[in-house]
Amino acid sequence: MLFANKYGLKKTMKFCLGVGTGFLIVMLLCSYFNLLLKNFIPKIEFFMTILGAIYMLYLALKIVSSKNNGKNNDEDRNNSFFMGMLLQFINPKGILYGITAIVTFILPYHNSNFSLIMYSLFLAFVGFVSTFCWSLFGSVFQKFLPKYRSQFNIVMALLLMYSAISILIK
Questions:
Q1: How many other β-carbons are positioned within 10 Å of the β-carbon of residue 159?
Q2: Secondary structure in 3-state letters for the chain
Q3: 125: Cβ–Cβ under 8 A, 6 or more apart, which residues?
Q4: Mean pLDDT over residues 34-41, rounded?
Q5: Mean pLDDT across the stretch 63-87?
Q6: Mean pLDDT of 118-136
């Protein structure tokens, strides 16, 4: 959303495509990794949930404490296909999404290569659409966000905190 807000939707598309490609690779890896760990996942799910919630709370804190100083730093370089793809390999939210979705909704019913590849493509497509929607919102709110950045950051951080807490409560 930040890139689209600064550079517009058109310049952010290569980043979105990189995110989609990286997410597809992560979903494929999650599919086959889950196949290997079918019996092990329930044992680590609790710890992964806590780790994911802590990371979400950390992101909320970073959002609230971020300042817009008008500098572009390395953001031009980071708004690329390659960077979008690489980010997916260190994105715990995406990895947890892949592991959870595949082990909960796919592996109990399907485990053929064809079905794992098709579901990975579908999950990656959903990830790409989500990223594209955030980019679209960033470009739509290009004039609005700079004026209300601190209020927007607070709302986004509160929503992220709510999501983290609701994951822990369930």
A1: 12
A2: CHHHHHHCHHHHHHHHHHHHHHHHHHHHHHHHHHHHCCCCHHHHHHHHHHHHHHHHHHHHHHHHHCCCCCCCCCHHHHCCHHHHHHHCCCCHHHHHHHHHHHHHHHCCCCCCHHHHHHHHHHHHHHHHHHHHHHHHHHHHCCCHHHHCHHHHHHHHHHHHHHHHHHHHHC
A3: 20
A4: 76
A5: 70
A6: 90
The residue whose two tokens read 């209300």 is 148
Choose the weakest-confidence range: 59-63, 138-142, 161-165. Answer: 138-142
Indicate the residue type of 69.
N
Structure tokens at 162: 């709510």
Token code pair at residue 37: 């760990």
CB-count exposure of residue 166 (10 Å: 0-12, 13-18, 19+): exposed
Virtual torsion, Cα 96, 91, 3, 11, nearest 10 deg: -90
Q: What is the residue extent of each domain of the chain? A: 2-169
Asked if 21 contacts 87 with a C-beta cutoff of 8 angstroms, the reply is: no
C-alpha to C-alpha distance for 57 and 166, rounded to whole angstroms: 12
